[in-house]
């Protein structure tokens, strides 16, 4: 029965640890390109420590960032820790080792966007055409900012009023 209690705590800790490592990897991937390796490791440990709070359990992270080399940028986080046992120590196991890992990859696929813009007469009412232009310009700015390598994003713009003429 004691083994089951310790094992249940270990499974619960591993599940919580995996969720914390996954969330940490996603948070770090948002800003990894603008940070040094030391900053990435420090921020990752801080995020992880805020998310993973288990009494009697300690964990350390190993974080590796690989810049975009054409196949995408990655952040790999490995977490390893030990859990103090309550009942298994009697059998000679005072701690249990728990490890988990998470990898995020982004920028590996090129984005293709086609915008079909309605320029019919109904768009002239209530400032709809001006709003569409502003929204389109904002989207194009966001896509341009997201692109890290020339050719990451291709945008096609097709205006139509009654029908679309794609040419011969």
Keywords:
3 helices; 168 residues; 3-stranded antiparallel β-sheet; two-stranded parallel sheet; alpha+beta
What share of residues are in beta strands?
25-35%
Instruction: State the low-pLDDT regions, or none.
Output: none
* Cα-to-Cα separation, first versus last residue: 78 Å
List the helices and strands in order: HHEEEEHE
Structure at a glance:
The chain is an alpha+beta fold.
Describe the protein:
The chain is an alpha+beta fold and 168 residues long. 38% of the residues lie in helices and 30% in strands. The chain has a three-stranded antiparallel beta sheet. The protein has a two-stranded parallel sheet with strand order 4-5. Helix 1 (2-31) packs across helix 2. It is elongated. The relative contact order is 0.14.
Secondary structure elements and pairings:
Layout: H1 2-31, H2 37-51, E1 57-66, E2 73-84, E3 95-106, E4 111-118, H3 128-146, E5 153-160
Helix pairs in contact: 1-2
